């Protein structure tokens, strides 16, 4: 763990420090700390997902900075319920005192309850405080006000912090949808009022800075999907991000209008529907839903299926449908599958492989590539990003939520709109701003990613070994020594993933075994009397031979017995 960054003379009561721990210089894993005086408040705590298969479920940010300041953390404040904003929360709370409250919209907190329960937290073990737009909340020396924004999930907010450096607006993820299905528009009037009052710093979502114009309205997606379902004469399967409750609500209405029953296929979509129902964000007619177990007996033209797994996640509903291995449903040629989603960067290959599987089955496949209207992004395009800057009229600007490319492009946009004090920072780069001072990078803190599987954190060494196993394989040496340290039986070396059996694996392993015997006989008595000494000599001897004969450097595991 690295020590907390030094608190220089400029870090007084009139100075605010912005500490990005995730989400700046990358897509996802959003987490940011605000620090002033003796108080720290965290905005969001998300995860990101692996692009390689090393047995990792998610990555969350490294919390070295937070752990070093945990006695000063006054609150965690959430902007909305997407996993890249809330998924890391259970891991963070494990490092904090139990009395640190978590503020957020009711829908986000309901999803958080499920995540906490998965990690063994009791119902009242963490204080979860629901927030409402245009109301003010206190966290140490900070006060903050949620501001309604539209996004691809219900109950999303921006945050206006009143700090020692003035008003700081964090947009969270947002868009300026003029016709959101739930009628809850981004509160441009309140943003403009804050702009009139004077915004010292705007932290704004950069995700879609390369997309010109305005984003597509979610309502138009509902119309496009309704047209597809209305025309279909067979099953329709809509693959979508399970968190998009507004789209789920529209599809329920489409099912009613087309006299179809609705089926939810996949754990994540069922989880999100349950959370939205609990907080009153979703209401289905009592007879609309049909259990997945009944799908096989339903007429093909009387069912509308909502399925999760649009990113081709292993064992997801869509992947199993495409492979023909789903235990409850087998698709037929002519069935309609709509991928009402985008491909998250890094997932291109598995998603296109899944699409290919559907096409080979004779499925009528519709995606954003063939039918552009079937999906709308939840993030602002350039025109909306410009509008956000014009509403807030900030003195200073820091782009957030994006790769370095996105941040640099958004910074340039802010300068074009007339903001002169603009700074691009990545994870770990501490930004300082005073009541009248310009932005400046004040320090650097330790950041990074922590891999997790089944709720447990995986050490970096485990991940490195898994990667090496994938690259070079493993050789296992079985060795028996007597009490004098002499080889009691011929060593045996076997391998997996180093060399193909037909390429002379047996010859290579026999050569490695001979090298092991020779290395033991040449070792001094002190080495042979030590298990650790013998293991290291054997490991190096076997690897040298294998590398010389194959060009590969496998992990070598030594099983040593003494008789």
From TrEMBL:
Top-level taxon: Bacteria
Enzyme Commission number(s) of this protein: 3.1.-.-
A Pfam family of this chain: RNase_J_b_CASP
Metallo-beta-lactamase domain location: 28-223
Protein name according to UniProt: Ribonuclease J
InterPro entries: Metallo-B-lactamas (IPR001279), RibonucZ/Hydroxyglut_hydro (IPR036866), RMMBL (IPR011108), RNase_J (IPR004613), RNase_J_2 (IPR042173), RNase_J_b_CASP (IPR055132), RNase_J_C (IPR041636)
Presence of keyword Hydrolase: yes
UniProt keyword terms in alphabetical order: Cytoplasm, Exonuclease, Hydrolase, Metal-binding, Nuclease, RNA-binding, Zinc
Organism: Polyangium sorediatum
SMART domains for the chain: Lactamase_B
GO molecular function: hydrolase activity
SUPFAM superfamilies on file: Metallo-hydrolase/oxidoreductase
